[in-house]
Amino acid sequence: MSEHAHPSRLLYVVIFLALVIGTVLTWWIAFKNLGIWNPVVALTIACIKATLVILYFMHVRYSNKLTIVTVCAGFFWLLILITLSLSDYLTRVLNVG
Amino acid sequence: MSTSQTTTTDHHPALVHQFDSMEQQKEASTLGMWVFLLTEIMMFGGLFASYLIYRIKYYDAFVAGSTSIDIKWGFANTLVLIGSSWTMAMAVWSAQNGRRKGQVYFIIATMILGAAFLGVKAKEYYEKYDECHIPGHVIGKGFNAWGGCSATDKSLGNIAEDIRIPPHGDPNIPEASAELTAKQTEIFFSFYFAMTGLHATHMLIGLGVLTWLLMRAKRGDFGPEYYSPVENVGLYWHFVDIVWIFLFPLLYLISRHAHAH
Amino acid sequence: MSTANENVMPEKHYLNDNYGIRSWLLTKDHKRIAVLYLLTITFFFFLGGLFASLIRLELLTPQGDLFQSDTYNKLFTEHGVNMIFFFLIPSVPAVLGNFLVPLMVGAKDLAFPKINLASWYIFIVGAGFALAALVSGGVDTGWTFYTPLSSGFVRTPVIAMGVGILIAGFASIFTGLNFIVTVHRMRAPGLTWGRLPLFVWANYAASLIMVLGTPVIAITLILLVLERGFHIGIFDPKLGGDPVLFQHMFWFYSHPAVYIMILPGMGVISEIITCFSRKRVFGYGFIAFSSIAIAVFGFVVWAHHMFVAGISVYSALVFSLLSYAVAIPSAVKVFNWTATMYKGSVELATPMLYALGFIGLFTIGGLTGLFLAALGLDVHIHDTYFVIAHFHYVMVGGMVMAYLGGLHFWWPKMTGRIYPEGPAKLAALITFIGFNLTFFPQFILGYLGMPRRYHAYPPEFQVLNVLSSAGASVLAVGFILPLIYFLWSLRYGEVAGANPWDAKGLEWQTTSPPPTHNFEKTPVVTEEPYHYGTEQEVPVVH
């Protein structure tokens, strides 16, 4: 019976603390003026937090390839929706005439 | 690939007829949950995509709207939900390792934290109701973010005023422009309620599913040979957590630094 | 190899295993669920057909003299909604797919039988809302629900209809989810991906689309319903909203949706062509991968419905180019089917007639899609009858014919009876003739400038419109005939036996109709698919 490995209790606690720190960090940085970088930093931290949840809490780090493909497909398709729609809106101002 | 010629020894009581082995059943049910989460990514994704487009189009209004929601509740709720993700992961671990009491306690803990989240959300929604920030004119007194919400307190929910008050606002902004931006915050709030509302609905459903899971855990259904329902509910719960991880910065933290955008 | 006196109905099979309404309404058997879907979508097909008949009646004369324009708006909306969401999207996957996918992979059932049953009930609930919208007056916004017409202007039951469609969408999602997990995790021993029937590949690819695209229309319709219910302004320009955003979100699903509709049909065609050419499919790998390619590419072309809606010209360029690219995998399939027939031993049984019709008509429809994908041309023919002709060629000339071909091909497997070949061939011919008579004139009408969704038109278009309406009545006969003889065959049709077509494929290795658990013994697959023309005969189980 193939049983894939699972995180230990200690690792779960470590991830949890990392997530808490990430949240506090997000809050703290939000009050600093980084101009255009504020949303970038906030979303980057969010992506890191999400990745930690996916890899460890959701066991994707220990899962088979199909699971990994499924997760990546989800985000990829979301990106298609966002980028292609934005590609319309962001290029409108260049419209001639 | 497992052999399909199963001998009829030792059928686990939870094995259903269409599967040949518990392993196949586990792999299938886990894949099923992941594919379902895939659909959920796209469903929330539609909201995220539209949100992004409007944030670009109405940036000032989004800043104003975001400033008007109480950040400390969003922050607290983020921690609560992360905590519930941890307790859920521990529930799965307990089931995997045959800890019956642990399973039950951690599932209950997850439910309590989830309920707490919803309680805070309810409070936040009520605050918005009070301030007349609920979009449309069907609920409450109708959307009004420019001073007409309360007969006695002109500052209640008055985003047009907040836009012009330092340190976050800029008194140089003309009144008419501030009022227009305040009107445009209705779109921000539409997304606020749509996104957090859809999220909260998923949490409610999650609580229902957790109730079912709790009953089965109490009955002793789960152990090292069969814990995939716990794991799959865990996947769903973690997903709902991840959605919130993105909602928090996108809705609450659009431009919090003390600076006139 | 089948001899006449071997054709006996098995004593116990999935239809007579259990009697009573409860055994049907609480069934977990994918085959019974397929039959439930068959009954439901047949109803919606004829309902949609009724509206089509009324449309064609009105268009016999240039004046809008049969119906007021508001009523006419309801006719084409109801025709579109019922046909697309309640007939075409479920058709092959929910009927033929549900029935055949477990059989073709050698499994006892789908991965999640209870979710399969739930999917049918969810479909019924969605259909209920849609019918409620119909009887409370009908919706008149067009099946595309463009805002702000649908979100704030009309007084018709848009909310009920929107709710109905989005609920039915979840039925589609559950079906797709079931198929994906089944194909990944429940294949019989020896059944590698490279040995899967192309019908399974096609349904798998369509399931990917169902799962990735449908949630977006669900959320779009939810937003539309919220906007209408609470008077918020997400898509209404008067309230600061963007109507083009609605179109982006709507078409993000609705374009891939057309591939949900056609891919399973193409899977049917692959199965039929190879069987009735007695030859293995040419380019199996290419056909399999082209299904996946269509599923993926189908997601990046949606704004070709919006070329004149106000999107940026640069974005339009990109979408136009991608729309040309998406035609390529479909063309690959058509070449391969043709190559399969070349030097094959072609038998013109009824399913093959439908398949041949599909190839010709789908090709015409597909090619005219390229006309529409060209930016300059589209400015001229957008929202004209050219578009209508294009999509009816692919949807009716393509998809419906594939569905009918599949029904004929697998009817013996599903019911244990064969339909009468004479009337069936006649019906196929009548359908083909009626179809072309109905829709070919519409290409010309569109090119000459007749707009769609208009109930009155300039008198110089009358001749073509009369031809089209005449064709529609012939087409109707072609569709009604199968209803009659299929029902007739249930009682009086010749007993089919396990493999009346002598076809390859696991579904033919069990009885007709199959037992509830599909196979007496789980099959083991050792051969390539479609090994026609080899010496080895596949043993048949009785």
Topology readout:
The complex is a heterotrimer of chains A (97), B (261) and C (542).
Chain A: H1 9-30, H2 37-57, H3 65-90
Chain B: H1 22-57, H2 59-67, H3 71-96, H4 100-130, H5 159-162, H6 175-218, H7 228-252
Helix pairs in contact in B: 1-2, 1-6, 1-7, 2-6, 3-4, 3-7, 4-6, 6-7
Chain C: H1 21-25, H2 30-58, H3 69-105, H4 113-135, H5 149-153, H6 158-185, H7 198-230, H8 243-277, H9 284-297, H10 313-341, H11 350-373, H12 375-381, H13 385-415, E1 417-418, H14 421-448, H15 462-492, E2 494-495
Antiparallel strand pairs in C: 1-2
How widely separated are the two ends of chain C?
Answer: 13 Å
DSSP helix count of chain A? 3
Give me the secondary-structure category of chain C: mainly alpha
What's the alpha carbon Rg of chain A, rounded to whole Å? 19 Å
Total count of strands of chain A: 0
> What is the N-to-C order of secondary-structure elements of chain A (H for helix, E for strand)?
HHH
Q: What overall form of chain C do the CA principal axes indicate?
A: globular
* CATH class placement of chain C: Mainly Alpha
How many helices of chain C does DSSP assign?
Answer: 15
Number of strands of chain C: 2
Q: What proportion strand of chain C? A: under 5%
> What count of domains describes the coordinates of chain A?
2
At CATH level 2, the architecture of chain C is: Up-down Bundle
Entry keywords:
heterotrimer; B: 261 residues; Four Helix Bundle (Hemerythrin (Met), subunit A); disordered N terminus; C: 542 residues; Cytochrome C Oxidase, Chain A; 15 helices; globular
